[in-house]
Design brief:
Rossmann fold, alpha/beta, about 30% helix, seven-stranded mixed sheet, 8 helices
Length: about 210
Amino acid sequence: MPVYTPDQYQHDRRRPHSFTVYGDAPVFHLPQPLAGKRVLDAGCGNGFWSDQIRARGAAEVVGIDGSSSGIEIARATYPGIRFEQQLLTETVLQELRCEPFDAVIAVEVIEHVFDPRGFVHACRSALKPGGTIVLTTPYHGYLKNLAMAVVDKWDFHHNPLWDGGHVKFWSRATLSALLTECGFVDLRFEGRSRVPYMWMGMIMSARKK
């Protein structure tokens, strides 16, 4: 179950690897502060967000990604953080030889994953009981989708010719359903950037039972 991160963003060492940044520090949308927490950055790309997590006082940060070029850049740019070329699976803790984490954060990843149920189950397996998952992804809802169709931007937005592009398009309802199905509770939602219901992106967090 590969995690796809566009190389053109990985090669800019000090830039977020995701295509969209929804305001300031979306990965810090946690119910509790990061200070003292152990965090897994799933789909870490060039390591930018892993460094931001560490800067907020996390006790330990581990970044994983399927891209060799992303991990190479992350290790060179942020030598104080552990980075591994590793796919997120339900055996990730054994493979990393880690104890369960307090939080798993995936910034602009789930829209690239062919098996989102498997991905979220793998996130859950990496968390301790009561641990938090945080996902950011582009927002899709009825009004935004309708507006794109009216202004003839549908093909541009869902361009099938984008190599390595998005394969899943999430609304609040569908992402909530996925998290609930996979055993998460206490879901929190925040739309980011633009006016309500035309949000560019969204952040969802939830707690492992």
